[in-house]
Amino acid sequence: MNSPLKVSGIDHVVFHVKDLARARKFYVDFLGMEVDHERSWQCFLKCGSQGVALFEVKEDVHAGSEVNHMALRMANGDYERVKAVLESAGIEVFGRRGDPHCIYFHDPDGHQLQLLLPEN
After folding, report:
1. CA-based nearest residue to 79, from 114, 39, 33, 49
2. Most exposed of 28, 32, 50, 83 (fewest Cβ within 10 Å)?
3. Do 93 and 83 form a contact (C-beta atoms < 8 A)?
4. Domain count along the chain
5. Does residue 7 fall inside a structural domain?
6. Rounded Cα distance, 94 and 55, in Å
7. What is the pTM assigned to this prediction?
8. Quick one: pLDDT band at residue 98, thresholds 50, 70, 90?
9. How many angstroms separate the CA atoms of 104 and 69, rounded?
């Protein structure tokens, strides 16, 4: 079936967060994303040509129930160095069954993130 619509990429993913300042600091200062624009209750970030939007909410955040995970491609780095950086920041790193060198972790609100390292 030929669809008249063709998606060319993902513009942004939205995460609900309890503390916008804490989430912004994590994604900007720790993961190196850049602020595109923001308001008092939301912050749109850029990572390459994709975006992540953080929306502060008053209700409980159910991280992982609305999205399984977001995979972020790394510009550089190797497994041991990236894992060490995360762990030195107090972040628990885990892999997946059959791929112990896969890097998964959670942001401060419990959203699961995956880092994809460059191919060697």
Report:
1. 114
2. 32
3. yes
4. 1
5. no
6. 26
7. 0.77
8. confident
9. 9
